[in-house]
Amino acid sequence: MEDSQLLHNLFRTEYRKLVSVLCYLFGIKHVEIAEDIVSDTFLAATETWSLKGVPENPTAWLYTVAKNKTKNYLKRDVFFEQKLSPELKYGAEMSEEIVVDLSSKNIADSQLAMIFAVCNPYISTESQVALALNLLCGFGIQEIADAFLTNKEVVYKRINRAKEKLKVENIKIEQPTALEINDRLEPVLTTLYLLFSEGYYSSSQNTILRKDLCAEAMRLVHLLMENKTTNKPSVNALFSLMSFHSSRFDARTNEKGEIVLYDDQDETKWNQELIIQGTYFLNQESTGDTITRYHLEAGIAYWHTQKEDTDEKWDNILQLYNSLLILEYSPIAALNRTFALAKVHGKELAIQEAEKLKLEDSHFYFSLLGHLYTDFDNHKAQTHFKSALKLAKLEADKATIERNIKKLVL
Amino acid sequence: MNEFVLIIRRDMVSKDAIPSPEQMQAAIKPFQDWIGGIAAQNKLVAPPKRWDSDGRVVKQDNIVTNGPYAEIKESVGGLFLIRAENYDEAVEIAKGCPILNWGASVEVRMAVQTEYK
C-alpha cells in the first residue's frame, strides 16, 4: 500500500478514536485541545514516516506519540494544568500520573460517550450531523461541505457554534446510564438516521463520499449495538433498515449519477449480503415487544427487497405504512401508503384517498396523483404531472416527471 | 380544527353476536386501513389503544359488576380521538368504519373548547 494511502486510512480510523478518548478524558470544554493533540500526532507521523519509513505497527506508534504529546502538553501548560487537572476524570492529582487509556474498551466507551454528547437536542440536528461527521467520523471541513453541497465557511461556523453551545450547556461526556437510555437514545438514533440519509439521498455527485457517509452512520449504530446498555431493539431495527437501504445503493443511480427509480432498478445490482444482514437484524429485534418507527420502516424496506409484485408483498407494505402513520404522521409516509393502497385495493380507491391528503405544496403529491391517474384518465394524469413539474426544484426530479408526461397516451 | 371522539359500539355478549369473532378477525385489515387513512390525513390525535374486553362497571353502593355486557348489547368496542373541521367532516370519516357493515355503530362527539386560565 502507498504510504500516503496508509496514512489516509489510519487517519480515517484512528483520528476519531484518539479525539474521543481525549475528549472523554478532558471534557467538552477542551475539545479543541484534544483535536490539536491528535492533529499534531498525525503531523508528526507524516514527517517522521516520510524520513524514516513507516513503523512496524503504525497504530501503536500513533497511540504512543499521542500519549506522549498529551503528557507533554499537560506538563508544559501550567495554565492548562491548573484549569484542567481538577476536572480530569481519573482524579489524577499530578499531570505526570494522567493515564491516556487507549485500550479497546476505553476507546469503545469514549466513542459511545461522544455519540451521546454530540447527538444532543441542545444543538440543531443539522449541527449535530456536521459535528458528528467532524468529531465522531474524522471528516474534514471540506468533505463535510462537499457532502452538504455548501462551502467550508458555513460548515466551519456551524461546527464552532455547536461546540460553543455544548460548552455553554456544560454537556458531560459520559456513559449514559441504563435509566437515561430511553430518553437519550431517541435523539441519537434520529441524528444517525439523518446522517445516513444525508449520504443516501444527497444530490452530491461524489458517490464515494456519499457511500462513506452511509458507512459511517452504520458504524456508529453498530457501536451502539456493541454496548449492552444501548443494544436496544430500536437500534437493531435502525441497523436493519440501513442495511436494506444500502443494499440498493449501487442500483439507484446510473453511470451519469441520475436517480434510477425502484421499478427500473436492475436487481442483480442489489447487494445480497446486506439484504441478508438486514433480514438477520430484523428478525433479531422483532423478538422485543416495543415497536418503533424503525421496526416498521425496516419491515417496509424488507418487502422492497422482494422485487416481484405479489399480493403478500403489497398487503404487508400497506399494513406497515398504516402502522407507521398511526405511530407518527409524515407526508412522505402518507404518499407511500396511498401508493401501496393502489397496489392492494386498486387505483379508484387510492385516488379518492389521495385527494384527501391535500399536500398541495409537494411535487411528490402531484406525481403520485399523476401515477394513479395514468391509464385511468390520462388527461387528468397530465394535469397533475404538470403541477408536479412546476413544484419540482431538482433537475433530476424534473427529468423524471417529464419522462412520465411523455409516456402518457393522450 | 376541532377534536372529536369516535366511539364504536358493538354487541360483545350475545351468543350469536354480530360481528362474530371470525368477522372481527376478517375486519382487522379493513379497520387498520381505515385508521391508516385517517392518519395519512394527519387527522389522528393519538394512536388508538386496544381495550381489554373484560371490563368492570361501578354503580351506586359500591356495586361492581364484570362488564356492562349482561344488560346492553352495545358495548364500547373502541374509542379514539380525531381532528376535523366540523361534524360533517367527522361524520364522513366515521362512515368509513368497516365494522358498521356488521351492525356496529359509531358515536361522534365534538370536544368543547375550554379555556383554562
Secondary structure tally, helices of chain B: 2
What percent of the residues of chain B sit in helical stretches (DSSP H or I)? 10-25%
Helix content of chain A: over 70%
The largest interface is: A-B, 20 and 13 residues
Secondary structure layout plus pairing:
The complex is a heterodimer of chains A (about 400) and B (about 120).
Chain A: H1 3-26, H2 31-52, H3 58-76, H4 78-84, H5 104-118, H6 125-136, H7 141-147, H8 152-168, H9 178-201, H10 207-226, H11 233-247, H12 272-285, H13 293-304, H14 311-327, H15 331-345, H16 347-357, H17 363-373, H18 378-391, H19 395-407
Helix pairs in contact in A: 1-2, 1-5, 2-3, 5-6, 6-8, 6-9, 7-8, 9-10, 9-11, 10-11, 11-12, 11-13, 12-13, 13-14, 14-15, 15-16, 15-17, 16-17, 17-18, 18-19
Chain B: E1 2-10, H1 21-40, E2 57-59, E3 63-65, E4 75-84, H2 87-95, E5 105-110
Antiparallel strand pairs in B: 1-4, 1-5, 2-3
Outline of the structure:
Chain A has 410 residues and is mainly alpha-helical. In chain A, 70% of the residues lie in helices and 0% in strands. In chain A, helix 1 packs antiparallel against helix 2.
List keywords for this structure.
heterodimer; A: 410 residues; mainly alpha; Serine Threonine Protein Phosphatase 5, Tetratricopeptide repeat; 3 domains; 19 helices; 70% helix; elongated; B: 117 residues; alpha+beta; Alpha-Beta Plaits; three-stranded antiparallel beta sheet; two-stranded antiparallel sheet; globular
Description:
- The complex is a heterodimer of chains A (410) and B (117).
- Chain A has 410 residues and is mainly alpha-helical.
- Chain A folds into three domains: 1-102, no CATH class; 107-231, no CATH class; 308-410, Alpha Horseshoe (Serine Threonine Protein Phosphatase 5, Tetratricopeptide repeat), CATH 1.25.40.10.
- In chain A, 70% of the residues lie in helices and 0% in strands.
- In chain A, α11 (233-247) runs parallel beside α13 (293-304) and α15 (331-345) runs antiparallel to α16.
- The longest helix of chain A has 24 residues, at 3-26.
- The termini of chain A are far apart.
- In chain A, 38% of the residues are buried.
- With 117 residues, chain B is of the alpha+beta class.
- Chain B has a single domain, classed as Alpha-Beta Plaits, CATH 3.30.70.
- Helices cover 25% and strands 26% of the residues of chain B.
- Chain B is built from two helices and five strands.
- Chain B has helices spanning 21-40, 87-95, and strands at 2-10, 57-59, 63-65, 75-84, 105-110.
- In chain B, the strands form two sheets. In chain B, strands 4-1-5 form a three-stranded antiparallel β-sheet, covered by helices on one side. In chain B, strands 2-3 form a two-stranded antiparallel sheet.
- In chain B, β2 and β3 form a beta hairpin.
- The longest helix of chain B has 20 residues, at 21-40.
- The relative contact order of chain B is 0.33.
- Chain A: One of its GO terms (biological process) is DNA-templated transcription initiation.
